[in-house]
Write a structure and sequence with these properties.
- The protein has 24 helices and seven strands.
- With 548 residues, the chain is mostly helical.
- It has a five-stranded mixed beta sheet, sandwiched between helices.
- Strand 6, helix 23 and strand 7 form a beta-alpha-beta unit.
Length: 548
């Protein structure tokens, strides 16, 4: 175990260099990184604007966080940056606490991710159930799409409420202000992206659509709002790192959002890493990936950027473009840095409806319609979990949706486990006919099957105490009990006490090592119960006592 500790916390970049970094790999990584940068450029700007920030914040995030995710992460080909999952959270934090509050929440999220990585919690992320992940992902997709309706149609709706229903009410009230040029640019951009995806998916459809739309607006003099019109003072350089000023009250206020950011970053990064493993055949290091994500979010916040995580679409593009090592992600960041420093001024000419069209495509991809339909065909518990998480995400709050979804999923799981746990009697407790024949008179044998935990404690106690005739001894076989918590111990303690009051001996046998150790630690509470290794030993002990 100790020998594997260093490798578990070694960034994949170091592993790649140890293998030998050849010129061929350098060339492949550079080309892949440039390809991903072309895809990430419009996405980073669009996601930043959808989050309520300026487009340069998205580029800064892709440059800084993307660099550290590749340099320190546990995946060989992961590419990171701003993603759609954060849009709702970021917009909410900025609206409530300002941009400084978002920076503080992102720093806290980075610390949480680093601690989670070193605490080896990377493996636990996979236990978040699919209905919860799909529910809040689809909910985020609906919110992102809704937030782009105003720009896509060119509505003059003023300050639009953040709430879903209030947003649509504002849109409907302003529908008479719809701009046909804006709709034409948005619909045209949408058509270009979809057409290029059908004709040649390898072409950078987002970038081509933005280029065509920008030229059309500029050359035709269309009255369409551009990035420069909305953000006239947008910087075109990488800012110096700066620690935000904060108070303890502010820290306390943004802490829930920090946990939400950390949770989303961890989930999406590890999901993306799993997808990458399936495409490449490599295996990622989940705990080191969390650490890399944590450092990346810390760095992004210090440079004034947004929360970041591994991006599944950009990672897949990186792999298809021939990436060999994490250097591809680093080249992607460097290419975006050059764009920011050299051509950042051109961003001002990008029309807002074109960015809205990109985000509508992103929202559709996030919605996972087929998976959503599949889960709707599952049992009532799965459907309820999916729909409740989805509805809470859209109508209430993402943090509430995740908390309620995970809690409900845990309750459903415990209910299913408790229904599978029971007490077997008669022939089901003893398979060997010879052992049944050797069973002394007045002795009952029960076998407990399933984990003994608080979810099944009451039912098991009722079953064990419904013995019609009081036996002189009860043998409890625990070989099918994989786990026992304090509530399970309490059940046994109560049963042993009740048996003692009836002058009935209790012998526990056939325990798995973990259950044996649990009972050994609670020994003083089981003074009236005897523990032996096997059923034969239990029968022999009863026979000896009878002879005595």
């Amino acid at each position: 175990m100790m020998a594997s500790l260093p490798s578990a916390f070694t960034p994949k970049l170091i592993t790649a260099f140890r293998e030998g970094y050849t010129l061929a790999r350098l060339r492949a990584d550079a080309m892949a990184g440039l390809t991903v940068a072309i895809v990430a450029l419009p996405l980073s700007m669009a996601l930043a604007i959808a989050s309520g920030a300026s487009p340069d914040k998205g580029l800064v995030t892709a440059v800084v966080a993307g660099f550290f995710i590749s340099a320190l992460g546990g995946s060989r080909v992961q590419v990171g940056g701003p993603t759609g999952a954060f849009v709702v959270v970021i917009a909410g934090v900025i609206a409530q606490h300002g941009y400084s509050g978002l920076v503080l929440a992102t720093i806290l999220a980075g610390i949480i991710l680093i601690v989670a990585g070193y605490a080896r919690l990377g493996q636990l992320m996979k236990f978040v159930p699919m209905p919860v992940v799909t529910g809040f992902t689809a909910g985020i997709a609906v919110i992102i799409a809704s937030s782009q309706v105003g720009d896509f149609l060119g509505l003059q709706a003023g300050k639009v409420p953040a709430e879903f229903l209030g947003k649509w009410e504002a849109y409907l009230n302003a529908i008479g202000t719809m701009s046909w040029p804006a709709l034409g640019v948005g619909a045209g951009s949408l058509a270009v992206i979809l057409l290029l995806k059908r004709i040649n998916p390898k072409l950078p459809g987002y970038l081509i659509a933005i280029g065509v739309a920008s030229l059309a607006v500029l050359l035709l003099g269309l009255p369409v709002e551009t990035v420069g019109a909305r953000f006239p003072d947008m910087p075109t350089s990488l800012p110096m790192p700066e620690m935000p000023r904060f108070t303890m009250a502010m820290l306390r206020d943004v802490l829930p959002s920090a946990f939400t950011i950390a949770f989303l970053a961890g989930i999406e990064a590890l999901l993306s890493a799993v997808v990458a493993d399936g495409m490449t055949g490599y295996k990622h290091r989940p705990n080191q990936e969390l650490i890399g994500q944590g450092v990346a979010n810390l760095a992004s916040a210090l440079f004034g950027g947004l929360p970041a995580t591994g991006a599944i679409a950009r990672t897949a593009t990186n792999i298809r473009a021939g990436a060999q090592t994490p250097m591809a992600g680093i080249f992607h960041s460097l290419a975006l840095l050059v764009v920011l420093l050299v051509a950042g001024g051109l961003v001002a000419y990008v029309p807002m409806p074109a960015l809205a069209a990109i985000l509508l495509i992103v929202a559709w991809g996030m919605s996972e319609v087929e998976r959503f339909r599949m889960l709707l065909r599952m049992d009532v518990g799965e459907r309820a979990l999916l729909l409740l998480t989805f509805a809470l995400t859209v109508l209430v709050d993402l943090t509430v949706a995740i908390g309620v979804g995970v809690t409900l999923a845990s309750l459903l799981f415990m209910a299913r486990i408790s229904s599978a746990t029971g007490v077997l009697a008669d022939d089901r407790s003893i398979e060997d006919p010879g052992q049944r024949a050797a069973l002394p008179q007045g002795v009952e044998v029960f076998r407990i099957a399933g984990p003994m935990f608080f979810g099944v404690a009451g039912d098991m106690l009722d079953t064990l105490t419904r013995i019609g005739q009081v036996p002189r001894a009860v043998i409890l076989r625990l070989d099918r009990v994989p786990y026992m918590d304090s509530s399970g111990l309490a059940v046994l303690e109560t049963f042993v006490r009740q048996a003692k009051e009836r002058q009935t001996r209790v012998i526990l046998c056939d325990m798995q090592p973990g259950v044996w150790e649990t009972l050994a630690r609670a020994e003083p509470r089981f003074a009236g119960a005897e523990r032996v290794k096997s059923l034969d030993s239990a029968i022999a002990r009863i026979d000896r006592r009878s002879t005595d």
